[in-house]
Structure formats: C-alpha cells, structure tokens
C-alpha cells in the first residue's frame, strides 16, 4: 500500500488523529501522532507496508521543546519511500507502549532507547540492558541525554546479566569469548548444548561500545562525515555515503549525476573486496586453505585498485558532501584491467569451491535461517536475501541502479550455501554494475560537486553497504552542528539472526555459520 | 650391536621428528603462494616454550594435569622403541609386537583426554569427547589392518612384518587404511585442523588448550613423535624391505636413506591431501573411518587368501 493511502486510511479508520503530516523531500513522510497512539500507528504502518522496523530511536529535545521524541522508520519498498512515525514524549517522565510484543524487530531498538535515554517501555517482555552492561554500568546514567554526566564509578554494581537458560539432563553451557583466538571484535557467545548439538545460543555484545552517536553531536557536517568513515572500517564508504545523503537532503543539495555514478562505482568496489574476503573466510573456516588463499589474492588486488582510484585502500576520505573528489585520469583503464583480473580469478575460485564435494558437504543445510524468522527479526542484507527476502536498497530506492536494471540476489533455503551464493552472485553483479556505470561516466563531462546552503533540519540518509542497509538519521541545529545522529547498521538486527540460525547445528559448525553471516562488532557496538 | 643401532636410530628419529611437521607446513604454504614459517620453526617453538619458567595452570586442575604431558611423551617414545625404523630390529624389539604399539599410543591418548577435562575449561571437555569418539573408530581399523599384515608375515612381530620382503596387494590395502587412520591420529584435515584458531572446531588442540610453558612444549613434541610413529608404521608396511643381512655401515646408511625417502613421500602426500580437502563435519568422520575399517577388512580377507 502507498504511504499516502496509509496516511489517509490511518486517520480515517484507526481513529488516530495525526498531530502533523509532513513530507521531507519527496521520499520521506513524517507522521507525528499523540504518544498514546504511537503503538497503534506503528502497528498499522507495519502491517500496511509489510516492512520490519528499519530503525527506532529517540531524540532528546528537552532544551527547545521540553520533550523527548521517539521515531520509528518503515521502508515502503514498492514506491521507494520512507515513513517515519513519531511521538512527542513527556520531558520529565518519558514512557511509551512497547512495540516488541507485536513487532519483534523493534525489540533491540527499544532496549537501546531505554538504556540510552531512560525512556520507559510499558509492557516490554525483555527489560534487560543491551550494551551498557549491568555488571559495570550503574543505574540512572543515560548517555544520550543532553545533560548526561558520566558516572564517577564504574564496575562492581553487584548485578548480573540473566542469560536464557536451558535446563535438562545432560544439558551444559559453553561460554565463548568475549576474548577470541582470532583477531576479531569481542562478543560473548553462550551455547546451551546437549553433546554436540546446540539447543540455544545467546549472543552478548557491546564490549566495545564507543559512544559513537554521542561523539557525533556537536561536530560540523564536514568533520562528522570523516567521523562516519570510522564507524565501521570495512564499510567506510557506505557509512560516509549514508551520512552525506542525510546532510544533502537537509541542505536540499542535488548531487550531479557524474558524482552519483562515481559514488555507485566506489560502493560496489567496497562490496567487491568484502565479498571476496567473505568467500575466502568461509573456505578458511572449513579448513579449505587453497581457495582461501586465492580469495585473499583477489581481495588484495581489489584493495590495491581502491588505492589507485581514491588514494585509500579502504575508500576513505574521498566522499564529500555534495559529491566526490576527482578520479585520476587513468581510472577507467585501472578499473577495466582490475575488474578483468578479478573476474577471472573469481571464476576460478568459484569452480574450486563448487566443484569440491568436501566443501559443498559442509555448507549445504548448515545454519539455516528460516524465511519467517528472518522477516520477524528484521534481518537485512545478504543474510536476508539468502532467506528469501529480496530487499535491497539499491534496487528499491536508487533510480541509478534501476536504470542499470539491477536485480537483487535471492536465495530461498537460508543455509550457509545460500549466503555464499548470494555473495557470489553479488560479486559478479557488482562487476557488471561497475562496468555499466563506468561506461556512463565516460560520455559525460566534468562536473563540480554541488554546494548547498547550510541549513538546519533533519533527514534520513541511507546506503546499501555490502552487509546490508546502513541508515543515518541526522539532525543539524541552527548553529550548523550535528544535534543527533542515529546510526543503524545491518549487523544490529542480524546478530539475532545468527543466534537463531545456530540451534540445530553441532557446535563445531558454529564458526562456519558465523562466518557466513560475517557480522560487524563495531557496527553493533556503536 | 643390534640394540645399540636400534637405540641410535630412535635417538636420531626423535630429534628429527619436528622436522616433518615443519616440512608439511612449508609445503602447504608454498602451494598456497605464501612464504611460510621456516622448516625448523617447530624446534624454535619447542625451545621457546621450554625456556619458560612459569606456567599458567587452572586452579581447578589436579596433579593429573601436570603429569599427563609426561605420560603422553613417554607413550610416544615407547611406541617408537618398538618400531624397527630403518629396517633391521627395533630397539626394544623383543618387548612387544605391532599390537602393543597401538595400545601404548592409546595409553597416551587416554591421559591426554583426562587432562583435557581436568582443567575444567569449556573446550577441553569437548576436545576429549571428540578425541575418544574419533579414536574409538580409528583403532579397530588400525587393528584389523595390523592383523592383515601379520597374516602376510606369519607373525605379529613388527620386525617380521617390515622385513617381510615380499610385496603383497593386501599390504597396500592395509597401508591405505592405515593412512586414513594416520590422518585421524595426527589431527589433520579432513578430520581435524591443526592450523585453525577456532576453538569450537578443535579436536586434539582443544585438549591442549589449557597448557602453557614446558608442559605445552612436551605435548607438542609428543604430537610430533606420534605423527612419526604412524608415518614409520606405514613406511614400514607398505614397502617392506628385505632385512639387511650383516651390519655394514654402508648398508645401514642405505637403509636410512631409503627410510627417509619413504617418510618424505608420505610428508608430501599428507601435505597435498590436506590442501585439497575441506575439513569434514564432525559426524561425517565416522563415515571416513568406517571406510578405513572396510578397507582393513578387505585387506585381511585378501591376506587370508594369500594375496
């Protein structure tokens, strides 16, 4: 259903009186409702758009309006529009009705809102904190409130975290992490197992919570853009793009087509090196070391190509608000030869993997994430596409990708092989896309990046990173500084997808499941 | 004289054991387009660990945890003593036959599995349980292969088997079965993965995870020795040589060279086996070892038929 119809029907049928309806640019509808209607309005929007909660967050606007705001973002994929449902909460005792009982994908976001803003949820089924661990973080300190003062004493709170427990004859728990043997981020994995089969897995993260959203506040748009690249180093360009998109929308900047093309090329370049690394990672985790070595050769070549194009192996410091820097003169030849080599190496790698009985036996039927679970949890990105959810911001929201006839990958079974297939498909698709975009680039002349008027306001920026959709909700104040920046990384919801894919597998297969999701610790531990 | 040469052989082979592990690693790395660690790296690791004065030991560990490394290395050395390495007789040839080798190795494994559980870590117990699961399937295959070889030689004495001289088809089948058993016993792909850092997937390494310092040095050395026991077993039975008559230095040198070449061939085969396969699912290992068992049975039938 179209958002305009949703809005009309909402006020007609559900007895909800909107406080205000605004369109921010053509693609972003803001609906403000009374706090008591918030849950009803979100449920209605959820049902009508058929979309999970893309983001749910709060804003402390007590200084200007003496209230908190809570906002819930839904994507209407069919018409490429966003619907943001908001409610104004009391500044003294903020409270709202929990959505999580009806929309499970809101659950993690709600826990985050509670611990970061001290906003209470009525009827929440999970009242535990998420990233500010109860063992070390004292009660009553809410970091994202504007008047937050850090606690003087950390640790020894005397509280413990309550893991879900599985009890029964022969059931035991295997705690793994947060310190791991590999060079990866910290996360605690609590397996309940009976022998080798996993009965339950609970993942606990947040050990490296850095207060990223707080650190954004008070930065100028330019320095915040550079900061966005540091949020998740493997998806630096996508994060930068999403942040820039939000600021451009606030300023009313129209990015010249040439710059859009270069951005799209670089976004795909980021996907290429990461997908190659992931395919190799899956091979490494089953001890299939020769293909893994071939994959790392591809990854290195892609990184070297990135450096040739942008001066940075990880595509940093090239994106600007309103456009990108200039590609070097030799860019097109470098892209042409680099992609040809990558394509050749990748098809050899593919042949090795798919032609190996011992490899295929490991990935088939392992770590199945059922379609229904993926939808309910709001899983996104390649993990969702492997479970039959063909959502992809590039196909759903980008006119540029639509004009290039881009089709998102889609697999149905939801096992490790499906996730591998999605990556392989996307790798090949990205090469095609880059060639198309490069071809379109050659015909046009030079264009300067667009400069916009510094304006205050708020907007949603987005980009489909290689891990899935990255959303930035940015508010810029009258003083031209960032007032609030809410980042939603795909890993935030996808970790729970991994937790649901593990039960039913044996413990030694878990690392493979984990690698097939390959989620981000920094993207989660904002 | 024979005893002295036997003891010398064992000393030589004990000191050379880590070299073979280093070689397999090197070959794998070269194939994977990497430079890899030096071939002698296992020795440097051993010396480094040996030089550590302190060990980190779990407070839940009992005396068993400290004793286990010595039992494990003793069992490996004892097994080596029973093998006639370069041909001729074993250092302790009269003390036990080919079946004894298997049981002596099992003793070491038993203690290793106990030690894995003793430290009360989450991974040790998993490693112990997996190790026992795998060895309970590998041992029957090894035993039946041994009997097939014993039928060929008319004796369970290792010297008789290795010095059998006559080459028979059943030896080849038994050797094939033993090769699969060796993969399992030396924790190599597709059964186990020595190179992985993923604790949840480990078998042998998981049991040793709680060890550090000298104990770890001993356990690692014992693994090298155990690997060599299995390699020597295969080298001895697949291509048996006639017992050298006489004790000439030239003859002994020639036997040593041939033995080394056989081991090197096994090293290369093992390295390429590891490179070209992915690790199996844990419960698929049962299928592989069952296959080894069937091959062993076939070789026993062939041997009984005189082939």
Q: Kindly report the name of the CATH homologous superfamily of the largest domain in chain A.
A: Cytochrome-c3 Hydrogenase, chain B
Structural class of the helix and strand makeup of chain A? alpha+beta
CATH topology of the largest domain in chain A: Cytochrome-c3 Hydrogenase, chain B
| Quaternary status | heterodimer
Structure description:
The complex is a heterodimer of chains A (526) and B (307). With 526 residues, chain A is an alpha+beta fold. Chain A is 42% helix and 18% strand. Chain A has two domains: 3-122, Beta Polymerase, domain 2, CATH 3.30.460.80; 212-524, Cytochrome-c3 Hydrogenase, chain B, CATH 1.10.645. Chain A contains 19 helices and 15 strands. In chain A, the strands form five sheets. In chain A, strands 1-2-5-4-3 form a five-stranded mixed β-sheet. A three-stranded antiparallel β-sheet of chain A has the order 8-9-10. In chain A, strands 13-14-15 form a three-stranded antiparallel β-sheet. In chain A, strand 1 (20-24) and strand 2 form a beta hairpin. By secondary structure, chain B is mainly α. Chain B has one domain. Chain B is 69% helix and 0% strand. Chain B has helices at 2-31, 41-50, 63-81, 98-118, 122-153, 158-162, 169-185, 204-208, 213-238, 249-276, 285-304. At the A-B interface, strand 8, helix 9 and helix 11 of A face helix 5 and helix 10 of B.
Explain briefly what this protein structure is:
In chain A, about 40% of the residues lie in helices and about 20% in strands.
Topology:
The complex is a heterodimer of chains A (526) and B (307).
Chain A: H1 3-13, E1 20-24, E2 28-33, H2 38-49, E3 55-61, H3 62-65, E4 67-76, E5 81-90, E6 95-97, H4 107-117, E7 120-122, E8 171-176, E9 188-194, E10 198-204, H5 212-216, H6 221-228, H7 236-251, H8 257-285, H9 289-310, E11 319-320, E12 323-324, H10 331-354, H11 357-363, H12 371-377, H13 382-385, H14 393-397, H15 399-403, H16 416-443, E13 457-465, E14 468-476, E15 482-488, H17 491-501, H18 510-517, H19 521-524
Parallel strand pairs in A: 2-5, 6-7
Antiparallel strand pairs in A: 1-2, 3-4, 4-5, 8-9, 9-10, 11-12, 13-14, 14-15
Chain B: H1 2-31, H2 41-50, H3 63-81, H4 98-118, H5 122-153, H6 158-162, H7 169-185, H8 204-208, H9 213-238, H10 249-276, H11 285-304
